[in-house]
Structures are given as structure tokens and as C-alpha cells.
Amino acid sequence: MEIIDLTLQLQDGLKTFASHPKFTLLDQVTYEFSAPRYQPPCEGFASKLLIASDHGGTHVDAPSHFIKGGKDIHEVPLQQLIGPAVCIDVSEKARDAVIDSRMLASRCREQSVDIRPGDIVLLRAFPGRWGEPGFYEWQGINDDGAAWLQEKGIRVLGMDLPMVDEIGNPTRPVHMRMLGAEILLIENLVNLDQVAGRRFLFIGLPLNVKGATASPIRAIAIPGKEDALS
Fold it and tell me: Distance between CA 186 and CA 209 in Å, rounded?
């Protein structure tokens, strides 16, 4: 079975958005420190301390991220993040070109992509690798594009950018629209070139953290298995 990992690897010092803290990985217990408590052949144990934003790395936003009174991540149904998915490739656009309904409709026709009600839709917007020059200046999707996807009846929108919204728009219309409609948002996906124009089963489950506004996920695509749960 082919499994494609769509998850950015977390490592000490990783920072995925300017307003969120970096991921920190520290030694909590080392083999050397704990060894005196044990007898051979045991040489002690090691454990790490993780300090992370709920929006660190590849993550899914809960409605409460922008919607007051919206669901926190532990209240999001797990089945919403498991299901048939499709990836639309818009990475040939210019850096400052905003993804709108016309661009999405055109790319869907060119790539023979059919968006079905209940789909998880991923957008490949960046032509390079995560974090390369220009990554944080690459434009996302605007409200027109989000409304077009909402009308298609999608349940999740994911992108390979650090923020799905249009850069420079402080009203955050895509976050407000989608999260307000309980359409979840995933950011910082990777390897979308491997699923561009394809249908697949997507799985991206959050941590069960009470009260969090988002959660890192392990996002994977399984091509050819999109109907496995039907």
C-alpha cells in the first residue's frame, strides 16, 4: 500500500509562523542520568520535553481559532479529518497572485479534478520546498476562492503555505468564512507535488488536547483508497 507523508517534520528550533513560538525539544532524562537506578543489561532510559504551539508544524485549525464560542480541537469530529480527498495544483501562479474562483475552476478543468460534496481539498500553491526563499511571501486564497470551495460542499481545506488567507488582509476572510462554517483548515502541508491532480484517502488526526485552538497532525495520503471508508 502506497502511503505519502504530507507532514512537515518537527525539530528543535522550527518556527512555522512569525506570531507562534518555535518548537522546542529538550532532554528531560538522559541514559547517563538515569543509569544508576538500573542494573545491566539496562543502561537507563531517555525521555524528551516538548514545548510547542498548537499551531506548530503541519496543523489543523479548530473553529475556536478565530470564532468566539467555536469548537475547540477536542470537540472536532475525527471523521471530518479522515476521508476522500483531492489535490488541486495552482503552483504555477505568480508569487503575488491570489487564488480565486476563476483560477481554481481553470485548474480543475486542466487537471480533470472533480470536487465532490464531502471532499477534503488540498491546494498546492508553492512550487518549491517548505521554507525556501519566498515561501512566507507566497499568496494564499481569497474569500472568492473560499466561497467557491464552500459551495462545492467541502469539509476541510488544506494548503502547503503557512497561512491559507491572502497576505495583507487583516480581516482574515477565509479563516472567518471556513471556520465559521466548521470547515477545518490545515496549514504547512508538504509533498503535495506527489498527490497533485489525484484522488486519495486523507488521514490527519489531531491530538486530543482539551481547550486547544489547533493541533499538530500527522497528515498522510493513501492513493487509490479514497472509498475505503464508504
Answer: 17
Q: How many CB atoms lie within 10 A of CB 125?
A: 23
Cα–chain center distance at 220 = 10
**What CATH code is assigned to 59-223?**
3.50.30.50
3-state SS assignment for residue 199: strand
Contacts (Cβ under 8 Å, ≥6 apart) of 179: 61, 62, 63, 65, 66, 67, 70, 185
First to last CA, the chain: 18
- The structural domains of the chain, with segments of one domain joined by +, span 59-223
pLDDT tens across the length of the chain (230 residues): 899 999 999 999 999 998 899 999 999 999 999 999 999 999 999 999 999 999 999 999 999 999 999 999 999 999 999 999 999 999 999 999 999 999 999 999 999 999 999 999 999 999 999 999 999 999 999 999 999 999 999 999 999 999 999 999 999 999 999 999 999 999 999 999 999 999 999 999 999 999 999 999 999 999 987 766 65
